[in-house]
Amino acid sequence: MAGFGLVIILLGIALWMGGRRGFLVGNHPYCKKCGFDLFALPLETRRCPECGSDIFADNAIRVGHHRPIVPLILTGALLSTSGAALIGWTAVGWWPQFDGSSFKPISWLERDIDSHDSQKRRRACSELERRIASDSLAPGQLDQIARAVLKLQGNPALTWNPHWGDLVQKAESGDAGHRLSAALWQQYVAQALSVTAEVRPRVRLGDPIPIRLICRLRTGSDFTALEGVTIAPTVHITLGKISGTVETPHRSLTPASADEFASSSMLQWNLFWIPSQPAGPGTAPLETDVSAGAHVIQLAATLIATQSTDPLATCTQNFSVPLKFLPAGESSVHLLHAADLPATPAEESTATQIARSIRLSGTQNDTPATAPFVFERGHTLGNLWISSPPVCLSCSVVLRQHASNGSTREWSLARLMVRPNDAASIPLRLEIHTFDERPDDGPAEIVCLPDATPAAGTVDINEVWGDPVTLPINLQISDF
User: Fold this and answer.
1) Which end of the chain has fewer CB atoms < 10 Å from its terminal CB, N or C?
2) Using an 8 Å Cβ cutoff, are 219 and 266 in contact?
3) Domain shared by 314 and 259, yes or no
4) Domain total for the chain?
5) pLDDT of res. 347
């Protein structure tokens, strides 16, 4: 398109020049140099009265004057303008696609990595990564890039871009070893750590207190430079006059953990703390400090980052979290029953949605109520597929069989907890030892019995489905 516009411009210029020159008219002599009319000049005059050139020289006089061709001039101007407009229109569409990052100096690219234009920001990061990977930058230039990223990393109000972290991490991990100064690398790791703590707001007196630590790393997506870095969390907890320290297993940053971090955007530790007070002279009983009611728990969460046993950085955050202890006989998880829910004739009831979200898939068929549901020694009884329940399902799964004398027998199969709108596949394994009573062939039921214990061990699930869900099967025991 631009080439066609250029051809039109050249054609227009040729027509304009031809029209401007025009054609010769009249018979007066004219100075060829300045165009002065030499008519009626004395014959002995040798020089042009206007410019002083020798008019007796060969080819110094022109007979007639040029008359421009106005239509040709206008046509040439129109064509040239049209061609210029066509090239301009093409340039407008092409310019945003043009990447001039390879021609920009580092200082310019440093400004572009924080640009509001996402395309400009992405191109600047890609160009800096290319230059870092090509080993074309001096150590001072690498430190210059790292300082620019550290300025962005140290601003908590700024949304972190993992591409910024990749610049520092690739600048650090080169073929020649560590390339950044030790102070800049330690500052980068220290600023990368950010920890928050969550505590279950309602806990039954005597139960462990669930605590969740969340570490959001302001790093890059490639953990190659962080290979060997371990993060060890420690939480010091104070509740009234009782205090304690909980340490959790450390996490190593590897390419595998980078994939985990990319999928969840965080690293998590789930831990439990049981308030306890050592006995001794002058020590008050536990009940005087921890009783049912409202309390405030103080947390000091510390993350210690080390690399090859060398300390890199430490991050400590203090939290004050309200906590309510419930009486020992009261559950911290509310059981939601279908009878307690208002009738919604226009919508599908919660109980119906729960029943529809659970499907039993056996080893032989997908319709266990009508076809044999086979159990073989060493194999699972089947799988319980749960998809998008409207409320949390926290259950103990049992195999139930009614005998002819009216008695009921049960065998434990699994324990599960599925969050709302989540999905899971739970294998059902029937463990029967030699002297245990075994189920009989024939009708049986897979029953999901509400069990709030798994939910009580989380920091955020306060309500679960409270009615049992029964799935009829036709059981067949083989190879027993």
Assistant:
1) C
2) no
3) yes
4) 3
5) 63
The number of beta carbons lying within 10 Å of the beta carbon of residue 325 is 22
Domain residues for 133?
101-191
- pLDDT of 91-147, one tens digit each? 777 667 777 888 889 999 998 998 888 888 888 999 998 998 888 888 888 999 999
CATH number at residue 439: 2.60.40
pTM greater than the 0.70 cutoff = no
Phi, psi of 52 (to 5 degrees): 80, 10
Q: Which of 326, 352, 386 is the last residue of a domain?
A: 326
Q: Phi and psi of 341, rounded to 5°?
A: -90, 145
Compute the residue count for the chain: 480
* Claim to verify: residue 209 and residue 345 sit in the same structural domain: no
Instruction: Say whether both 301 and 429 belong to one domain.
Output: no
Furthest C-alpha separation in the chain? 150
Local confidence band at 88 (pLDDT 50, 70, 90 cut-offs): confident
Distance CA 393, CA 332 (A): 15
**Alpha carbon 18 to chain centroid distance?**
64
Same domain, 445 and 318: no
